[in-house]
Amino acid sequence: MGGHGHEPPYTIPKYTDFKVKGIPQLEELEEALARKGLKDPWIRNEAWRYHPGFGSRWLHARKVFFRGLPLGIALTAATLAYDKMTGGDGHGHHDDHH
What is the pTM for the complete model shown? Predict the structure, then answer.
């Protein structure tokens, strides 16, 4: 219905694709819980966050904070160039009579 025969551009991984084993952060959490006599049956649900396809925290922070940086620099340069070409001094046009 409305898809024109196209499939989604992604595949949804199976829950069995993600394991706590081999992910140091989750293994450490599991061990810390075990020392307190606890177990988190849902810990595997966090494994996808550490999958190489998802990226690291630093990568996501860089994307969030620096996503618009190139555009911002380009617009600043364009504004400065326009100001210089039009002879603008950046102080506005005020008629101060003293």
Answer: 0.42
Phi, psi dihedral angles at 77 (to 5 degrees): -60, -40
pLDDT in tens, 58-96: 777 777 788 888 899 999 999 999 999 998 765 655 555
Alpha carbon distance 80, 72 (integer Å): 12
Structure tokens of 60? 């996501």
CB neighbours of residue 13 within 10 Å: 11
Cα(20)–Cα(17) distance, integer angstroms: 10
**Nearest-angstrom CA–CA distance, 78 and 57:** 33
- Residue 96: other Cβ atoms inside 10 A: 4
